[in-house]
Amino acid sequence: MTVQILIQSVEKADSAASLFKAVSALAQANSVEAIPTLITVLGYNNPGAAVAAVDGLTQLGEPAVIPLLEQLDGYNYGARAWAIRALSGIGDPRGLEVLLESAGSDFALSVRRAATRGLGNIHWDKLPFEQLADAQFETFKILQKTVEDPEWIVRYAGVFGLEGLAIAIQKTQPEWLNKIQEQLQQLANIDEVLAVRARAKWAIQKIKNY
């Protein structure tokens, strides 16, 4: 079955179930031709289809980044939230500005969580060297904010983000590394949620063993 036929199946779907099935099939095709349609699906009021579209866009990776950024719809909050999830999964630094903004200030905890986790997935080697220090410092500042979020699931994601950043900067920014380790240790000692404390302890160990 060609990608064009799969796209037509998405466009002709007349129920939530048929849309989910069609989007899943299109996502599994792993074709750049599917990107515009998968992004369009993010704006539908169908969470199942949106999850399938996010999975497909994440799997496609870099080719999906610019189309996602160009079509971020500030007026369609649902579509924007799903697009942020896709950008978080891809980890391309071209999506960093959106992830920083969303992690630091979005009103929905699920979006803050996804964006925060995405900050721990950034492929820093794809960022020009002259931009690296400033970008990592901005990421560090936002992650410090996320581990103070009132929602524990965001703090948990913040621990993941700090762990990823710490591993990335071990050799280039050792002074930040010490601050990250101190913050993780504080979370491991005093966070009110056991899962966050345990994740912080695990992050400390992973950083030491890296």
From TrEMBL:
PANTHER family: PBS LYASE HEAT-LIKE PROTEIN, PHYCOCYANOBILIN LYASE SUBUNIT ALPHA. It comes from the Bacteria. GO terms for cellular component: phycobilisome. Gene3D superfamilies: Leucine-rich Repeat Variant. One of its GO terms (molecular function) is lyase activity. It comes from Planktothrix agardhii (strain NIVA-CYA 126/8). Its EC number is 4.-.-.-. The keyword Cell membrane does not apply. Keywords: Antenna complex, Lyase, Phycobilisome. Pfam families: HEAT_2, HEAT_PBS. The keyword Lyase applies. This is Phycocyanin alpha-subunit phycocyanobilin lyase.
